[in-house]
Amino acid sequence: MATGDRTLWHGFSVTFIFVVANLIKMIPSIITAVVIHRLINLRWQYFYRVVFVVPMIVPSMVYLLLWKFFYDPTQGMLNQLLNATGLIRVLNALDTAFQWGIFHAGIPPSWLGDAALVIPALVFWGFPWVGIVGVLIYLAGLSSISPDVYEAAELDGIGWFKKFLLIELPLIMTQIRINLVLMIIGTLQDYG
């Protein structure tokens, strides 16, 4: 029976981890879109919009090769950064203290080759977690908010955080739902 198969349930749990991680990754996209939207200088707004569109042009193979290079155990940027900052020693000490069995002194971590490290490495994939498409979707929603709403908020003396919570966030809920559906579909296609 399929429901008793441990591999099936492990696959579901891994996919669930990726869905939750990608859900958390939506937060920086919303914050980035709000920051770009609130820029007073229209030239800077345009510049940042271009910055978020250009990476969409880069072919996905180049993107994958960059991340493969980032995680390479011997020449990868991540292991070089961990060695240069001394964080690899901290990870080794934590591994010894908590008996994780993941990090070994003198052996660089194989981020994509070790079963214990591959899920955190894939969750970290795409750091700083600002989803390009998400930012553009949220910017479209934010730009549709009437300036009269912002003017009324200014007259009422609403601060920047309340403006976000009471005005911007509720008015872009449609875009958040769209992005949530796209994110779940994408996660299931990528990892399911």
Structure summary:
The chain has helices at residues 6-24, 26-37, 42-57, 60-71, 77-85, 87-98, 115-124, 132-143, 147-156, 160-171, 173-191. By secondary structure, the chain is an all-alpha fold.
Name its key features.
0% strand, single chain, 192 residues, mainly alpha
What does this structure look like?
The protein is 74% helix and 0% strand. The protein is elongated and about 60 Å long. It has a domain at 27-58 and 132-192. The protein is built from eleven helices and no strands. The model has no long low-confidence stretch (mean pLDDT 85).
How many DSSP E strands? 0
Secondary-structure-based class equals mainly alpha
Question: What share of the residues lie within helices?
Answer: over 70%
Terminal CA distance reads 20 Å
Globally, the shape reads elongated
* Multimeric organization: single chain
> Can you summarize the main beta sheet?
none
The ordered string of helix (H) and strand (E) elements is HHHHHHHHHHH
Overall pLDDT confidence: 85
Q: Ranges with pLDDT <50 over ≥5 residues?
A: none
Instruction: Count up the helices.
Output: 11
Strand content: under 5%
